[in-house]
UniProtKB/TrEMBL annotation:
GO terms for cellular component: Golgi apparatus. Its cofactor is Mn(2+). Mn(2+) binds at D414. Keywords: ATP-binding, Disulfide bond, Glycoprotein, Golgi apparatus, Manganese, Membrane, Metal-binding, Nucleotide-binding, Transmembrane, Transmembrane helix. ATP binds at K221, S325, A326, Y327, L328, E399, D414. GO terms for molecular function: ATP binding; metal ion binding; protein serine/threonine kinase activator activity. This is FAM20 C-terminal domain-containing protein. The chain crosses the membrane at residues 6-25.
Length: 527
């Protein structure tokens, strides 16, 4: 009996020691290593992309800093908070030299001071013949939109913890609108569309530039479709409506993916009478306003095939939902060029582009400047993943800032044709990825993270979109489609790896561009 007890005690001690040695101790050691790995006290050795191209700097230069700001805290067990606190989302770029910033403070202030003085002259002249509500405009050098402009650098439009971004979203939601006008591209068009072509030249959509009382400017796209309406099957992507909620959701998705290539976008209820009709100096814009039989104030786009009143948008009776996208710095101070997407679609009923019929299309592209070196092709592939997730087939061009030359990031502007069909995944949008079989390592690890249940893409997007005043921005089926599509992206990558090997497919954020940065003229010649 006594011997039995001794035997039992000895057995338990042995089991406990084995457990301690083989399981608990290694676990503790791993935890210890883990906290050292991501500490802010020295160079990081995260097993992530290692080589660092120009648009993704070398990791040994990057340091982990604890998350900052309301967007990144995790006091309530939020998945988004945990995502943004993850080491992958806290790798800081090295200190930026003046050449790596888009704008210099003095240059920007001077530019806007001049613009302000011109505005005073203009409004004084304009009041004489039309009754426009004149609002006070004040130039605030500390305004969030100026801080956003000043934060743009060669890596992204804003940094993760930049407090100017949430501030800018808040300002765009609540500030008084002091003027409204057509956007530049719409003015260039002067309401004319060539209807012999299926594709309009540009910008026949209802979109306006709104200016706030602190001189902030935003592009307004009104609501044209209910959240739960799906694009009918027989509608071509190029005649599909633009969706204000797609613009908003795309900004959030781009931030969740950590690209930061979409300017900040927020939803807002706009008073079409008080904040557009009564503050515009543009006679053409005033002329497209009318009152509907239901006594709602409406306006329509001045273009041949959407100028009819049945295509108008109406307030209820004055309030209308829309997206507001923060303007980028003007082209005269921060020039950008627009480059045709190599995977452009034909924009006709019958046409086929080469990429649709030639499975080796990418081999040709890889040899062509500027896709033959640097990050450009990988950035196009990032963009195709982004567009596939939203279902946007309308990426005919992309824009880059000329200042950063070939190594600059690609702007993801105009996302309004995404989120049209939740029940369909348009695999052809992924053609750059599936045909080139290349992906940045940094993009892949983030996608893998977002596929895990603890960070599930639909969950972090649902949470992020709750911050918008027009919530809910996406219906549940659209949110769930994001998870399904993410799995499809990962499957395409897996297939590539199986065929070609990991080293060929997963690019360690790419080698440096071999050539010197090109001038704008050189770049234009290649278009
Ligand atoms: N946030 C922004 N700041 C500054 N310019 C912008 C911004 N968003 C868009 N633009 C400019 O306005 C142009 C038209 O915008 P957008 O593409 O969103 O409208 P669109 O009606 O779909 O035009 P298009 O038919 O040319 O695609 C863009 O190509 C871009 O140059
Ligand atoms: Mn467009």
């Amino acid at each position: 009996m006594w011997r039995d007890r001794l035997l039992l005690a000895a057995t338990f001690t042995a089991i406990f020691s084995a457990d301690l040695y083989f399981i608990l101790l290694p676990k503790l050691r791993r935890m210890g290593q883990g906290s050292r790995q991501f500490c802010s006290c020295g160079p990081s050795n995260i097993s992530l992309p290692g080589q660092g191209g120009l648009a993704t700097p070398h990791l040994s230069n990057w340091t982990y800093v604890p998350p900052l700001g309301a967007l990144t805290t995790d006091s309530t067990g939020s998945k988004l908070g945990r995502l943004f606190a993850h080491p992958l989302y806290n790798i800081q770029t090295p200190a930026l030299g003046p050449e790596e910033k888009l704008l210099l403070v003095e240059q920007l202030m001077e530019y806007y001071r001049k613009k302000m003085s011109r505005r005073v002259d203009h409004s004084a002249a304009a009041v004489s013949n039309i009754s426009v509500t004149e609002h006070e405009v004040t130039f605030d050098p500390d305004a969030s939109w100026l801080k956003f402009h000043l934060g743009i650098n060669r890596y992204a439009l804003y940094s993760r913890d930049d407090p100017a971004v949430p501030q800018l979203l808040e300002d765009m939601q609540g500030m008084a609108v002091v003027s409204a006008d057509y956007t530049q591209d719409e003015k260039a068009l002067k309401g004319v569309c060539d209807c012999t072509q299926v594709v309009k030249p540009s910008g026949h959509h209802l979109k306006l530039a709104l200016k706030m009382h602190n001189f902030a400017k935003a592009m307004f796209k009104p609501m044209r479709q209910q959240r739960d309406e799906e694009t009918p099957e027989d509608v071509f992507y190029f005649v599909d409506l633009q969706r204000h909620n797609a613009e908003i959701a795309a900004f959030h998705l781009d931030r969740v993916l950590d690209f930061r290539r979409v300017p900040p976008v927020t939803g807002r209820l706009v008073n079409v009478t008080g904040e557009i009709l009564q503050v515009t100096h543009n006679e053409d814009l005033r002329a497209v306003f009318f009152t509907s039989p239901a006594n709602n104030t409406c306006f329509f786009a001045k273009c041949l095939y959407v100028c009819k009143t049945e295509y108008a948008v109406c307030g209820n009776p004055n309030l209308l939902e829309g997206s507001l996208s923060a303007y980028l710095p003007g082209l005269s101070i921060a020039p950008r060029i627009s480059i045709p997407n190599p995977w452009i679609r034909s924009y006709t009923f019958t046409g086929r582009e080469e990429w649709e019929v030639n499975p080796f299309y990418c081999d040709t592209i890889k040899k062509l400047y500027p896709y033959n070196s640097g990050n450009r092709l990988l950035n196009i592939i990032d963009m195709s993943i982004f567009d596939f997730l939203t279902g946007n087939m309308d990426r005919h061009h992309y824009e880059i800032f000329t200042k950063f030359g070939d190594e600059g990031f690609i702007l993801h502007l105009d996302n309004a044709r995404g989120f049209g069909k939740h029940s369909h995944d348009e695999m052809s949008i992924l053609a750059p990825l599936s045909q080139c079989c290349m992906i940045k390592s940094s993009t892949l690890v983030r996608l893998q993270l977002l596929a895990r249940p603890e960070f599930r893409l639909s969950d972090v997007m649902r949470e992020s979109l709750k911050e918008d005043p027009l919530r809910p921005i996406l219906t549940e089926p659209h949110l769930l489609a994001l998870d399904r599509r993410l799995q499809k992206v990962l499957r395409v990558v897996q297939r590539c790896i199986r065929r070609q090997g990991r080293d060929e497919v997963v690019t360690k954020d790419f080698a440096k561009s071999t050539g010197k940065p090109q001038t704008a003229t050189e770049m234009k010649q290649t278009r």
